[in-house]
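During the reporting period the student researcher (J.K.) took over the structure-prediction task from the postdoctoral fellow and processed the backlog of single-chain submissions. One of the processed entries is reproduced below for the supervisory committee.
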Amino acid sequence: MDKLIIATLQSRVKLLDEYWEKFTTHHENFIAFFSELKEDPYFTDDVYLEIESIYSEHKGVSLDEISTLKANLLDLSVLPHETSSPRPTPSYESSSLPRIPVPKFSGRQEDWENWKKLICSIVKKDEHLPPVEKLQYLLNSVEGEAARELAGTKIIASNQTIAWNKLTRRYDNDRIRSSKHFDSIINLEAVKRRSASELNRVLDTANEAIQGFRDLSYPVQYWDRFLLHLVVQKIDKDTRED
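J.K. obtained the following structure tokens:
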């Protein structure tokens, strides 16, 4: 009976993959016409992420059931004389959740790059940390808008990659990140009177944006005059004249 259920589940997974492949092909076609379709409910309601979540959840549940059923079959296949002696315990290197504190990511675009580097170095690249624990650590490290992106995520191994992909698709977007860096300079509140703290505020914001462009591999070394012009416009008249 278990073998029949496994075969049925495997067929379901295969069918899900085929449907998902067709859906992503159509999605890429829609993306090509984004400028004309951006107000369509497909984009405004974020249908892609909804379908992806449904696909991931059903596939993950099916794969978990297959794994459990196969383990049961393996137990049943053990010969009687083998059951008289205890099975050797498989050796593996266990790992507990990392203890290094990671600031929670709230969805602020300017915090994404540093947070992503921390998560990757502490969690994602840890080969001994099980996917379920990685997912739990990821869910515990987000709040606000970013947490809403992952709302409803079930704690199963297959969802670890899905959850990370949701965040990278939303925040690891070069176009959005570059726009945020430009906006941080263009929309920077101008200095109204000469003040060291105010000048430092302008310079810190400009340096942060420039570093952001460097992280994106933008050729900022050729933008000196352009960026200088933007920054100078934010400085009070007396300081500019000096």
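The committee noted the following: Confidence is low (pLDDT under 50) at residues 81-98.
J.K. will present the remaining backlog at the next meeting.
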